[in-house]
Amino acid sequence: MSLPLLQPHEGPLPGHHYLASTSDTVTWGWLPAEGAAPVARIGSGETITVDTVSHEGIMEDQGRDPVAFFGQFGIGPGDVLRDAVDIAAGHPVRDAAGDGPHVTTGPIAVSGARPGDVLRVDFLELVPRAPYGVISSRHGYGALAGELPHLPHPGFVPDPGHPEKAGSVSTFCRASAELTGSIAVPGGRELRFPLAPFLGLVGVTNTGATPLNSVPPGPFGGNMDVKDFVAGTSLYLPVQVDEAGLYVGDPHYAQGHGEVALTALEAPLRATLRATVLPAAQSRALLGLLSRPFGETPEHWIALGLHRDLNEAFREAVREALRVLADLYEVPTDIGYAYLSAAADFVVSQVVDDVKGVHCLIRKSDFGAWT
User: Fold this and answer.
1) Do residues 271 and 364 make contact, with C-beta atoms less than 8 angstroms apart?
2) 138 and 296 in contact (C-beta within 8 Å)?
3) What DSSP line would sit under 51-75, residue for residue?
4) CA dihedral for 303, 264, 102, 150, sign (positive or negative)
5) What is the rounded CA–CA span in Å between residue 220 and residue 107?
6) Which neighbouring-strand residues pair with 307?
């Protein structure tokens, strides 16, 4: 059975607040800068439902016309999201070569947040908005840039805006209500895989009046592409400016660790979040001295390393994991180093976002009886 289409303002909107993605509430290719007017305001501990929009299907090299783009795959005009159509048509002309790809919704002002505090973002619901999505490999990016992708074969569509990059492809995927994705394979077969929706881009506004490109993540969060941040998990972000300036985007239905082709299964989500301000003293008591994004699932703490060099990103993840063990559990560095080697999992988050990511999963149960 196919997933239902969730047009803006339609269907369940469970948050205390609701934020649609429009040309007035999004930035395309850039993150909100300090001083940007909030597009919504919420109190600490309140929830907000945000209809996020994927960039796939509206990019310039896909024709900037989602009705025509998805029509190639048998999707009728009435089954294309209205907000995607409106943003593609109404957003100012972009520098397709210099801007990032992501449609970012925000900033959302969170009352009482101040620099030095930590904003806890709980992912309560991440609901698919459409029964389809796209995986793209293009622009000479990806783990095997220069080798793949091969020339398009049946089921793949070349990016029309870049004929010089004949190997650039956008792969159409269908999504079922059973949270299964499927890709058509030559010969009438389908490749199926489970969906696990998450937001690839979540952050707080950085200091400075110059907007940051949406691609590289940083201490403010941003485009981290950590697939573990599914519904029921939490992200902690060090607040950089007054009222935090929370933003979200880059919705995914599924991603493999590494995101090797360039994108994962990119598709729109209705995200319901709770944003809670942890004052500096409280956050330090709970999390230690936090200077970068930090995650929590029911089973794990998630320590992140971010760097343009993948080896250094790995080292940063190890250092951050050692900090977690020291600050939360008073584990000496040498013992923590041994523990991480024996018991923790280090995973490549992604290798395609300029600033690459590695994250460490530390089992909470190993410290369940800790005194």
Assistant:
1) no
2) no
3) E---STTTSGGGTS-HHHHHHTTT-
4) positive
5) 13
6) 356
In whole angstroms, give the CA distance from residue 225 to residue 198.
9
* Dihedral angle, C-alpha 220, 226, 230, 232, nearest 10 °: -60
> Tens of pLDDT along 83-94?
999 999 999 888
Structure tokens at 95: 């520098």
What's the whole-model pTM score? Answer: 0.94
Closest CA to 97 of 213, 228, 243: 213
Q: At what angle do helices 310-329 and 333-343 cross, to 10 degrees?
A: 120
- pLDDT tens digits for 355-367? 999 999 999 999 9
Q: Which amino acid is at 229?
A: F
Q: Say how far apart CA 318 and CA 313 lie, in whole Å.
A: 9
184 CB-contact burial (10 Å; exposed 0-12 / middle 13-18 / buried 19+): middle
Predicted confidence (pLDDT) per residue in 95-106, tens digit: 877 899 999 999
